[in-house]
Amino acid sequence: MDYIKIRFGSSLPIGGPYGKSIGGVFRPRPANPMFSSGEHSWTPQMDIFETPEEIIIQAEIAGVDQEDLEVEINSKAVRIFGRRTESSLVANSTYRLAEIQYGKFERTLFLPAQIDTEVVSSSYSNGFLQLRLAKKQKNVTHSVPITDE
Q1: Phi, then psi, of 19 in degrees rounded to 5
Q2: Which domain holds residue 68?
């Protein structure tokens, strides 16, 4: 599997004050439950990879009930959205760390190739949603019969 490497320049010391700022930009920020107000949203982590025949998407959405999960597709994009409900608080407890994010989420992924929306399968196991999307065949030729008038 090929990955794209992103470098921000060799002049930035990763361990210095700028390294923490750059790292913080790409990490989701957990909300302290005491200060959360209204509807909180979060972004699940996902992988997309492809074979010559299909595109495969894996979404890490542990704790989301299957009934609270929806997927919409068209030939160029996939939209995955839903809600993770907050677990009940333990009586007489004080949060020392609160990193698990709750609330609604939504991701729209634009696909690297057109897909056949009629040939899609999905599974949800151990907190991972997997979508398998068949690619549309390119350069498929069809014979056209010629008839006499």
Answers
A1: -60, -40
A2: 36-89+98-135
